[in-house]
Write a structure and sequence with these properties.
The complex is a heterodimer of chains A (147) and B (115). Chain A is α+β, with helices and mostly antiparallel strands and 147 residues long. Chain A is built from 4 helices and 5 strands; from the N terminus they run βααββααββ. Classes of the chains: A alpha+beta (147), B alpha/beta (115). The interface between A and B is medium-sized, with 26 and 18 residues.
Chain lengths: 147, 115
């Protein structure tokens, strides 16, 4: 597989969180990920899309854009919402910080633990974009180059 | 997702059939809270995760919320039939500090009813 991409847009319904997991895992399976790595990708995706539904749009509803790319043996997932944005990025990144007592504040912790790369860009009133990358562990040298 | 609930003395046995995430967490909360309100003798919560292939932080959040409720009654939290992947999510979240994983239903019931 040299390169591939997929672009999907869907409304911020809780039901679409599981749909996004299925889409990302199916796409990711084109690379040589282990079952365990695919599970990690499913969790990271679930957290990112849940964040759009819960924090991006809160009580309202909007669009979530899911963009997937395979390039040079690496998976990139970009998840964008056009919601309220994050006021304080440093606070949002604090492990176990949450704006909701029923939530654990672990979404970003899981995304960081399970993916090789994570960036979070946000503008108040405009929205938030999460970019995550992961490379299959097998078939990859320790310096990240392909075998 | 479906939630199957049984009682054994002071233990509420909750079998989660399906994935526990943002869309299914409210059903888990409602069903367990309804039982806790109806049966004041219920102290402990035992999660049977044999048919639960996936839990994310939304699922962990509702489990933690119910633990807070039963701990006010002196209750404890246990789980059985936990897959390796779900166990890792529990470990990373720190939930294993408040939840014990047991190998069989009988072990779990005995350990919960001990005290």
């Amino acid at each position: 597989m040299d390169s591939n991409y997929l672009k999907v847009e869907f409304p911020s319904l809780p039901e679409n969180v599981s749909l996004s997991r299925v889409i990302v895992a199916s796409f990711a399976a084109q690379l040589d990920f282990t079952l365990n790595e695919l599970e990690e990708i499913r969790v990271a995706t679930s957290e990112a899309v849940s964040n759009c539904v819960i924090h991006g749009y809160r009580e309202s509803q909007g669009r979530i854009l899911l963009e997937l790319t395979i390039k040079d043996g690496e998976l990139e997932i970009v998840i964008t919402d056009y919601g309220c944005g994050i006021q304080d990025l440093d606070l949002a990144k604090t492990p176990t910080y949450s704006t909701d007592p029923e939530r654990m504040g672990l979404g970003l912790v899981f995304m960081e633990s399970f993916m090789n790369y994570l960036t979070l860009e946000s503008e108040v009133g405009k929205g938030t974009r999460v970019t995550m990358r992961k490379r299959p562990e097998r078939g990859t040298n320790h310096d990240g180059s392909k075998q | 997702m479906n939630i199957e609930i049984n009682r054994s003395g002071s233990v509420l046995i909750v079998r989660i059939q399906g994935e526990l995430d943002l869309s299914t967490a409210p059903l888990f909360r409602e069903k367990v809270e309804a039982e806790l309100e109806q049966f004041e003798g219920v102290k402990h919560l035992l999660l049977d995760l044999e048919e639960t292939p996936f839990i994310d932080s939304s699922g962990l959040g509702v489990i933690l919320g119910r633990f807070k409720h039963i701990s006010q009654r002196g209750g404890r939290l246990s789980a059985i039939n936990v897959s390796d992947h779900v166990r890792r999510i529990f470990e990373l979240s720190g939930l294993l500090k408040i939840m014990s994983i047991q190998s069989t239903l009988e072990d779990a019931l005995n350990s919960l009813k001990e005290r």
